[in-house]
Amino acid sequence: MLDLFGAPPLPGLATTNDLVTATEEKSLIAAIDAADLSPFRFQGWTGKRLTTSYGWTYDFDAGRVQRGGPFPEWLLPYRSRAARFARLAEEDLRQALLIRYGPGAGIGWHKDRPAYEHVVGLSLGAAATMRFRRRQGGKFERVNLPLPPRGAYHLAGEARHDWEHSIAEMELPRWSVTFRSLRDHLPEPLPDAT
Predict the structure, then answer these.
(1) Is the pTM of this model over 0.90?
(2) 138: helix, coil or strand?
């Protein structure tokens, strides 16, 4: 999303409306639904969205990043495409998070964990709005970003580190694939499937 003069709404935010085709979207949704999804857990609380991670995972109960299973073969072409969109090396995207948001599911205000650097998200199913906010004195500055089906976003720099983001509860199902790079101090992940 660009303003009238071609500038992104936030420094460090890039978007595209067509990272995958409608046929690929259907295939991705089916693959996500077939994955070993489980309810999101946060410090003993269970959320409405279903998730699974590859490459690396963040254990919210333990408060740390840990190794996960290798990326499945079907996900690798989309990681490659996400990396090209974000102008990153494919191997930099070392974590993938699959999410299914059922009716009534959303995600509250947060910043991605400090262990992660670049965040590249692919939105599938129902259209959504990603909300951004940052505190300015006693108030919040806010920006909304439409997430069309099959579109993607890249958070880096200020958009990644200075702004929180959220997605309001939705009435229709939505799926997402979020790829992340890791900060340099973490060990190597498991190799990808071949």
Answers:
(1) no
(2) coil
pLDDT confidence of residue 193: 46
For the sheet with 93-101, list strands across it.
13-16, 152-155, 116-125, 174-182, 93-101, 45-54, 38-42
Band (pLDDT 50/70/90 cuts) for residue 25 is very high
Domains of the chain, first to last: 13-182 (2.60.120.590)
DSSP string across 141-186:
EEEEEEE-TT-EEEE-HHHHHT-EEEE---SS-EEEEEEEEE-TTS
> Which tokens sit at 179?
């790829």
Reported residue count of the chain is: 194
Residue-level pLDDT at 190: 45
